[in-house]
Amino acid sequence: MSTSVPTADNMQVNDPQLKGKLKKAERFLKIRALLLVAPLVLFVLFTFVFPLTEMLYRSIHNPILVDNMPQAAALIREWGQVELPGEDIFSEVGKALVIAREQKTIGRIGNRLNSEHSGMRSLTTKSARKLGKYTGDDYKTYMLGLDKRWGEMETWSAFKVLSSEYTMTHYLAAFDMQYNAKGEIVPQPEDRQIYIDMLLKTLKLSLMVTVFCVILGYPLAYLLSVLPSSKSNLLMILVLLPFWTSLLVRTSAWIVMLQSKGVVNSLLLYLGIISEPLDMMYNQIGTVVAMTHILLPFLILPTYSVMKSISPVYMHAARSLGATPAHAFIKVYFPQSLPGLSAGAILVFILSIGYYITPALVGGRTGQMISNLIAYHMQTSLNWGLGAALAGSLLIVVLVLYGIYNRLVGASQLKLG
Amino acid sequence: MKIKTLVAQLPLAVAVAAASTGVSAESLTVVSWGGAYTESQVEAYHKPYTAETGTKIISENYSGGVAEIKAQVEAGNVTWDVIDLEKADVIRACDEGLLVEIDPADLPDGDDGASAVDDFVPGGLEDCGVANIVWAKIVAYDESQFSGNKPSKMVDFFNTKDFPGKRGLKKTPKVNLERALIADGVPGGKVYEVLSTPEGVDRAFAKLEEIKEQVVWWEAGSQPVQLLADGEVSMTTAYNGRIYNAAAVEGKPFTIIWDHQFAELDFFGIVKGTKKLDESMKFLKYATDTKRLADQTNYISYAPARKSSIALVTDKMMPHMATAPENFGNAVPVDHAWWADNQDELNERFNAWLNK
Q: Which of B65, B95, B230 is facing A261, going by the closest CB pair?
């Protein structure tokens, strides 16, 4: 194909003038093509690449101490974490706290330190108030007398962790680890470990949703592709109608259906099949059921469009050569439908990993996913750095999984239609 | 035809655009929690303010927290002017430099002549906020779900044997750990002392563990009322005004248990970077004066944060207030300074505990 397209390079053109003209025309075409995609590129840049990079940057950028108490931060960076800091560090920190109080940055500094070590907020705000009245020059003795926490290694380790402009502390936290008082990386106490569990649970639930979507969607897509169009169009509308309905409406509808006094439970109780209402809402069952329903069209549509392009001739050929229906299906039909199925499955899986609204509404205690924790850190705890680190970790996990998939199946096998 | 209608509508469109720019020059965006609470504020503060000054008030809703203010201030695009916040958020937002500082000396005196500092209830004046109401985190139950023995004490919330049914709890460790300790026998006044020790925290979580399987967790203030109404839970923690509204206005058989209520304050604050600082300040002073705070009690059962306003509350509404003597008996004040110190660690532990 490519040889039939004349370009300046592959054509044996000897006339330099013509060559130049051809190049000019090509350049014009290139510029035109670039201008045509420019709005999209700019859109993606401003609404996706730029905010995403900014957010990921927050997960390692940590300017609070460097900006607000530069001298003290520089000294603490050199501190070896073997014994309590000396008078020089105490006096720099003491003076910096007084200045921070005057500049009204003490609250922000305190809150940030507090997320590394509990109690730092009150320690810094209280000490800053008292240090403002201190006129002597033996800060170490004075501060140790003010509050015994100034004599604890954990206090100074919190300062040390935040003394550099860039830190991995959020990523450590995202994987249930932390720096101890000596600056070594250790696991979080067991009763505070949550993120790895949550990540695994997110992957597990997403996998379940994907498997259910495949089980429910594949036969339906097949039916759609073989029915005459008068019937398949009607079925298609039934698939698309929920797809066009608001996500919130569909999720709320599942609450009505599955809650303990909901439609399903009432019916089963009435029929005498169960004697106690089943717990199907506000747990993992609720999350998986609602998400499977919501994401089903994403599996059906690509699978259907690939199946539609498979000629029935192959199956007839296989049958006439003596294959049983099952054998013909597995050996002939299924491999041809696989590109659509795997595209649909990966779409469902990746959408599920980042799902937020449905688990938040119907997940209750056990049906929460990692996005709910990211939202929690963005909205409630205001620890945007940790939220960004969790989002970054999720991105890495998705890329790794996609890489594995690519090695096993090959991305070129994906087909959306 | 299409062009004709377009031309015909053009002057109208221009007029609308002109009117909307005209309005925005003298309008104020006041943000609050929505539902019956916002309605009470519209009636008691916004409408009379607009009538007196001509300034239009745009009422917006949010669900608490500091994230949206932080985003507006950091982006330099502040669209909210005055905001209704709970105490923990006022402290947090002030720490982060997101709110304008308010000098109590600027606030009007009470009707009885007392200065603002003396007139507001204890803790009612923060560096960046002026209290408007006193509300309570209480336990409420659905009468129709208990045929014989009805719960009467906060402790009954943890007793699923004598008082069966699911429980609604807010998805946060705050106040829940306190309730758990009180149910485990710690006196209300000693709660924070006990919680300051690792054993105390373990004890609180162990008590919560007893009812963990029975709990439906809620997040927004309207949810517990819905859970009760749907029969999903038989008892829930909630905000007293919401339960009052469901009972008084919608006639639901819900009863509030005032025993060991947790009294809280809500505040008005002004978002730093607002383009209408003077107007915002004017509204804040107006809305928190004696008469306005007393007026809002006619629309919802939240007590006014000024002592001079409490004197003006009608006899009909008084028994539903968190501050009514018969309700306030063993109320526990929430220690926000303690929570500011310990919230990061306890929230993390709480989230991990929930997930197990």
A: B230
B26 CB contacts (<8 Å, ≥6 apart)?
B54, B55, B56, B279
User: Tens digits of per-residue pLDDT, B32-46?
Assistant: 998 889 999 999 999
CATH of B135-264+331-355, one of 3.40.190.10, 3.30.450.70, 3.40.50.1110, 3.40.640.10: 3.40.190.10
Please report the beta strands in A8-67, taking only residues with DSSP state E, as ranges in sequence order.
Answer: none
Cβ atoms < 10 Å from Cβ of A351: 16
Query: What does the angle CA B256 – CA B259 – CA B262 come to, to the nearest 5 degrees?
Result: 90
Q: How far apart (Å, rounded) are the C-alpha atoms in residues B7 and A186?
A: 71
The Cα of A46 is separated from the nearest Cα of chain B by a number of Å equal to 15
pLDDT digits 0-9 by tens, A265-297? 999 999 999 998 888 888 899 999 999 999 999
Burial label for A27, CB within 10 Å (0-12, 13-18, 19+), is exposed
Number of alpha carbons in the 13 Å side-chain half-sphere of residue B219? 14
What's the pLDDT tens digit per position in B253-306? Answer: 999 999 999 999 999 999 999 999 999 999 999 999 999 999 999 999 999 999
List of chain B residues whose C-beta atoms are within 8 Å of the C-beta of residue A193: 352
What is this model's ipTM? Answer: 0.78
What's the CA angle centered on A51, arms A46 and A52, to 5 degrees?
A: 120
